[in-house]
Amino acid sequence: MENPGYSSGFDGLHHPSDDDDDEMVDIAGATLDFSTTDDVPPLSSGGYDEYSAGSSSSRAAGMNGSGPTKLVDPLEDPLPGVGTYEDFNTIDWVREKSKDRDRHREITNKSRESTVALLHSVSDAFSGWLLMLLVGLMAGSLAGGIDIAAHWMTDLKEGVCLIGFWFNHEHCCWTSNETTFQERDRCPQWKSWAELIAGTAQGPFAYIVNYLMYIFWALLFSFLAVTLVRAFAPYACGSGIPEIKTILSGFIIRGYLGKWTLIIKTITLVLAVSSGLSLGKEGPLVHVACCCANILCHLFTKYRKNEAKRREVLSAAAAVGVSVAFGAPIGGVLFSLEEVSYYFPLKTLWRSFFAALVAAFTLRSINPFGNSRLVLFYVEFHAPWHLLELAPFILLGIFGGLWGALFIKANIAWCRMRKTTRLGHYPVIEVLLVTAVTALIAFPNSYTRMSGAELISELFNDCSLLDSSQLCGYKQPVNTSETGVDNSLADRPAGAGLYTALWQLALALIFKMLITVITFGMKVPSGLFIPSMAVGAIAGRLLGVGMEQLAYYNHDWLIFRGWCSPGADCITPGLYAMVGAAACLGGVTRMTVSLVVIMFELTGGLEYIVPLMAATMTSKWVADAFGREGIYEAHIRLNGYPFLEPKEEFEHSSLAVDVMRPRRGDPALAVLTQDSMTIGEVETLVESTHYSGFPVVVSQESQRLVGFVLRRDLLISIDNARKRQDGIVSASLVVFTEHCPAQPPEAPPPLRLRGIVDLSPFTVTDHTPMDITVDIFRKLGLRQCLVTHNGRLLGIITKKDILKHMAQIANRDPDSILFN
User: Fold this and answer.
1) CATH code for residues 656-810
2) Cα separation of 40 and 48, whole Å?
3) How many CB atoms lie within 10 A of CB 570?
4) Keywords, A to Z (predicted)?
């Protein structure tokens, strides 16, 4: 049984061996010391003081035993560590918001005194919008660079441009006058590797050369990606969204949003996407945008020194990430609100909207795809959908829900195996093996060989007369009178080309479903949006073509009669692909509103909102029937992050006294008394425990609560007093009250620490129902809550205690709630 004081495995002060990630990263024998530079701005560098805003002079005065506390500028704090947090610790939202209110009140009061102070007040109010502008510009620029580089390196696996190796395939052939419409991707300026090495583009030898070069480049890119992540920034792997959700809920993971992580994630994201692995760049772009925001926060004191304010900026940055990933600024804001953010005030909504707008504008200015669009797969469908088509759309929703639930269970099982077996000790070998298998199987099939975004673009495409794609391999109409309206074609019988494409797509579907399970969670940057959408889009296209052929050959059936006459363009297979993509992504992530908005911003298909809504809602319901967790929540639980899921209901009828510590048979609660302990006794208590804070009581006998003091603030204040204050020795009395008790004349001077005590800690009585306590923790973002009975201190409940209790109720191992 654990000791009963204020504790959590990650809420304690670090042991000397547990170096913070931004000071020393020791991975695979490569030790990099970043402590000499201000490289990774910790997410915990809030610099100022206690809950009730006693401050520099007040605390100094308090230590010297003179005068009561008064409100002074908390930014001029002579004790830089007080009020900040350790790594792997949870912030105190209430204290941070209180500090910000005090700071704002002081600036407002000063602004009435002089013009300079008024200008400072105006600049302080404007700083949030300026920060959003900078975040939007930086994230938009990086996203544009990532898109261009990934497009070029993906094409590099197949060949090179002779007029300039930096041109991708499409740009290389743009200026050529020798391309034909049927073979628009063939031009003399672009040479495949077989043409360069073997001198021929046709025949089995040329095919083998291209095959081997494809595998070589894939292995090279993935090897570089995993090696860079291992050596320089271990936090740059994965999607990043589970960790960002946890950070936004108040947890601190130093270095996760630092400069090294940003640089390495940007480079390795391009390499990972280009290697042909079944992953996307959309999730990692959210991480990249949040890194930009965290780094830029250090330009503004208001955000640098307040953890709660910084998390408002990070919420907006998550919106920016989706905005640049999909070219969907409104969808990005809704994604941040629905999926990522823990605390999202109205002010953050407006700023997110502005930042997403700036980022989308920046990306549009860069024009990475050369089509004046924000995304690669903008489509325009000509035929409206019919009410009877809702049945196949709902069928796609059911498929998406089943696939989502299956994927989450399979992926979590694989990731748990990676953590608990020797597989996790060899990340480089694992990445290379998965890349080799992916490249070997993907190359023969044109639909798995192309990048995920290109595949989705191909599947969303609506066939026109001039399409040379295999998916448009229909038997051509005898005369043009059979074409429909608006340059769209009437439904036609499938030709040999289409049947070949359907077989290849069916094989691609099976391959994508299996390989994505293994790929997501490897030690390279890996997003899940594009692979999930690809699975859904393939399934949707197959169903769409099936429906189209059914309608063509059976237009006299009752269900088709009246709206699908011969020669009409009734069924649009591309629309089914779009609905399937939304359904599968919804099944995996459990997004609803934001997903529908992202999809119609992504494709421009405004009139198809109802099919998208129907499929997305169905997929969520079906997936929820197998488990309420989305993929990100499942990974949060797998990693043991201290995250209280706001969507999860607490339905047990336990009381606070059942969850608090100490429990029966445990040692007594570790407490400090207000005026009867010496510095030596306090230091002994602190050293003999690993708790992050201690309740302050009137005396050991009365146990009447006075307040709560954090371990970190206590240690810093005692250390500072020993250095700066004369006469402070181990026998000096530590006093947490305004007035010192009477002491003999020969006694050393007391150390007054009232300034660091939180005099209004949150308390509940021992009979408070746990569902109310959990709600208090969620809505106020508490780290701990004290339990009293008739005013006397009984025990303490921490966030970790609640998570352990919820794990026990769900028949899970309570010790899994430990940051790993």
Assistant:
1) 3.10.580.20
2) 20
3) 22
4) CBS domain, Chloride, Endosome, Ion transport, Membrane, Transmembrane, Transmembrane helix, Transport
CATH of domain 387-474+489-639: 1.10.3080.10
The tokens describing 3, both together, are 């000791």
The residues near 618 (Cβ < 8 Å, ≥ 6 apart) are 394, 397, 398, 400, 401, 583
Q: What is the DSSP letter of 483?
A: B
SS3 743: coil
Residue 148 structure tokens: 């261009």
Domain boundaries, the chain: 387-474+489-639, 656-810
Q: Taking the chain (820 residues) in consecutive chunks of 10 residues, what is each chunk's mean pLDDT?
A: 40 38 33 35 37 36 36 40 79 87 90 89 91 95 92 88 83 70 68 84 87 93 94 91 92 91 95 93 93 94 90 94 90 92 88 94 84 69 80 94 95 92 89 95 91 89 72 66 50 78 94 94 92 95 90 77 70 90 94 90 81 94 92 91 80 86 84 88 89 89 90 88 83 86 83 87 91 89 89 89 85 66
Q: Which two tokens stand for residue 698?
A: 């009137």
Helix, strand, or coil (residue 398): helix
Nearest CA among 341, 332, 369, 330 for reference residue 451: 369
Contacts 24+ apart (CB under 8 A), 775-783: 775/650, 777/644, 777/802, 778/644, 778/646, 780/93, 780/94, 781/91, 781/92, 781/93, 781/94, 781/249, 781/250, 781/342, 781/343, 782/92, 782/93, 782/94, 783/11, 783/90, 783/91, 783/92, 783/250, 783/692
Residue where the block lists tokens 């099939």? 445
Buried b (16+ CB within 10 A) or exposed e, 31-46: eeebeeeebbbbbbbb
53 with 26: CB under 8 angstroms? no
